[in-house]
Input
Amino acid sequence: KNQVEQSPQSLIILEGKNCTLQCNYTVSPFSNLRWYKQDTGRGPVSLTIMTFSENTKSNGRYTATLDADTKQSSLHITASQLSDSASYICVVSAGSNSGYALNFGKGTSLLVTP
Amino acid sequence: GAVVSQHPSRVICKSGTSVKIECRSLDFQATTMFWYRQFPKKSLMLMATSNEGSKATYEQGVEKDKFLINHASLTLSTLTVTSAHPEDSSFYICSARARGMNSPLHFGNGTRLTVT
Output
């Protein structure tokens, strides 16, 4: 069973609208959580990294939240642009006794339409 | 920021030939490198993990004799697809990570392999 579940699997929104992507994980012990953006035909690019003590982190129009108690993270995109169309991947790193193993979600495919 | 360079970005080869893909970390020492395969509109599939100076660890179902991985230095890993067949056509991506608990994972831009 995948230890990182992302939802929704895909999403279509109108340009200018906001959206929120979810990432739930069971990875334990937890080290950190990263959100990546992958444009079609390109490698993923890091958006944010969240450690245990961080609740919110912003990167421009992207805001990530983390609730380490419920093991949930969200990525909120504000005032979406056509260029936000991409796959968004949540990656959770386990702790030292798991060799800092990386656990990938299957991604959320976002399409922003005019 | 840290950069991972993957080369070539596209390659077309004939069935039966071998293809080598390079992954370089340009400004950090990559103690661990990962190789992924990705089909259209699908998620990344981890193929193997390689630590510098040691043999790669392959995921279940990945043929190690088919996909040869070498991580001979802290800045270079290579993936060689041997005796390529059309079903090997895919998007291959590498990523690299330095030593340390919170070391970020940096991805290359991928290689589109087409086997004719």
Summary: Chain A touches chain B at residues 31-32, 34, 36, 41-46, 49, 51, 87, 89, 91, 93, 96, 100, 102, 104-107, 109 (CB under 8 Å).
